Amino acid sequence: MKQLTLNFKERIGQLLKPARPAKDTESGVLTQAERAFFLARERAAIGRWAEELAAGFLQAQGLKILERNVRERFSELDLIALEENVLVFVEVRCRRKNPLMSAQDSIGPLKWKRLVRGAELYTLRRRWRGEWRLDLVGVDVDRERWHLRWLRYLEMEGADDRGC
Fold it and tell me: Which strands, in side-by-side order, build the sheet including 86-96?
């Protein structure tokens, strides 16, 4: 009986796919066309490019993208995804590489509060009863390369206390 139980557990273990490890970072090289719109400083095109890059990265990590660029009363939610049973609101930030401030450092308390309010309103309107969280995908770009960083389960200490 003990041997039969062990064999069953081994077979189940072989049938189940192991969880894919989530990556936190990814880097790449800019194409000629991407370099051109970065040089032209077309903010809308840069934002769309960064959101596409982030969406592709998150899908490769196992998240299902549900919606993009959802406008709620207080903010715009860049990406809304589902990871298992958790609703994930993803803010995408893109900046030229700067030694003083990276893309993830560019969120202040006011932007943070707007994101939280937007996410709360989204969950209320859609009657979401499960867990949800806020994530950030920061994309830093220099002349020829980009570097993406995914920060999960964001919290901003003191954002609610500042009256923003």
Answer: 25-29, 145-151, 132-141, 86-96, 76-83, 64-71
